[in-house]
Amino acid sequence: MSHRKNTNYERSNVVRICLTGGPCAGKTTAIASIKQDLAQLGINVLVVPEAASMLMNGGAMIVSSNFNQSQGLMFQKCLMKLQVALEDAFIEIAKLSDPTTDVVVLMDRGLMDGSAYVSHGQWQALMDDLGVTTLHLRDNRYDAVIHMVTAADGAEDFFASQLEARYESLDEAKEKDELLRLAYMGHQKWILIKNQECQDFKDKIMKVKESVLDVLGKSAGAHFHKKFLLMKHRTVDNSVLPLDLSEIQ
Predict the structure, then answer these.
(1) Which residue range or ranges hold the NadR/Ttd14 AAA domain (predicted)?
(2) CB–CB of 86/245 below 8 Å?
(3) 8-27: average pLDDT
(4) Looking at residues 218-238, what average pLDDT do you find?
(5) Are the C-beta atoms of residues 240 and 136 closer than 8 Å to each other?
(6) What is the tens place of the pLDDT at every residue in 83-103?
(7) CA distances from 1 to 142, 148, 242 (A)
(8) Distance CA 109, CA 52 (A)
(9) Which fold has domain 7-233?
């Protein structure tokens, strides 16, 4: 996998934000609201679609529980290749915009999400196979990560009302949410949106939007909960971006 230098990723007017979270967290609503409201502020928002949903909608989401380990790794590799290609394409297109215009590339889930759906050993085997690390996939590719907590944790009544449309039980949703938190919480700008700290769902969406504005330096963001894990003297090696898909066989 090539680590070619790409200084264009250092352009300050393109901000890369990963929006993730547990099942039934409200991501779809948040993305639509962010896109609409930021447009009114003159900020262009490009939304990278969720790779897993694209596969599912295309009929390619077969029952992964029937996979052996080799098949499971191949499926995750295909999913990651698609996600990388989508992210890189949207970022390249974002860089074509007016340099005086703020541009947000909003990822509907990120590359580390897959780690919540396989064992630790399988995930490590996948990263070893692709020649990447957590630093490549989490810290260097996103300027911020916003985690919306599943409704199963703090908004149980709403989650119960949506059960017919969900694959996970309440406990399974909470478990996935916790695994996703662990996957991203080492990022230097990891923001947690908890249901218990929101008056209602509308307030939760507002806090997500305020978080995005805060990342952009457009708002003090005094009314939302966030947790930043700051690392002193942290150096980001932009030479790992973008990932060279031609070398992922």
Answers:
(1) 16-188
(2) no
(3) 83
(4) 46
(5) yes
(6) 999 999 999 999 998 888 899
(7) 19, 32, 10
(8) 9
(9) Rossmann fold (3.40.50)
